[in-house]
């Protein structure tokens, strides 16, 4: 489990970095078991959301709505940490020092 940036640096796929191992002998592993060469776009296992939320200016004047939104986001975060804890630990090797963030839409669950 690592960031793509570090993979590219390690295998010399980024200017100014010398390869520490031959890229042809390694691949990205996808959730479905397929592999993708390191020179191509990797499959996504999980992604970190941007550190912010966007709202229109209407929310500035509606403090009750803003409070409800903050509570909803907090509840979703707790739900993700509790309901996906085994998956996070065993598949992604994320421990108690990491905060898990998930997006639960009205129609389906998907990792963000």
Automatic annotation (TrEMBL):
Domain Transferrin-like intervals: 1-112
Entry-linked Gene3D superfamilies: Periplasmic binding protein-like II
Domain of life: Eukaryota
Protein name per the record: Transferrin
Organism: Cacopsylla melanoneura
């Amino acid at each position: 489990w690592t960031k793509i940036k570090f993979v590219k640096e390690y295998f010399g796929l980024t200017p100014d970095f010398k390869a520490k191992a031959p890229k042809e002998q390694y691949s990205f592993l996808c959730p479905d078991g397929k592999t993708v060469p390191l020179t191509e776009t990797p499959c996504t296992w999980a992604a970190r959301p941007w550190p912010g939320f966007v709202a229109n200016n209407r929310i500035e004047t509606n403090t009750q709505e803003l409070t409800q939104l903050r509570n909803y986001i907090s509840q979703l975060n707790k739900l993700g940490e509790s309901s996906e804890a085994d998956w996070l630990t065993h598949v992604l090797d994320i421990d108690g020092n990491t905060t898990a963030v998930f997006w639960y839409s009205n129609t389906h669950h998907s990792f963000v």
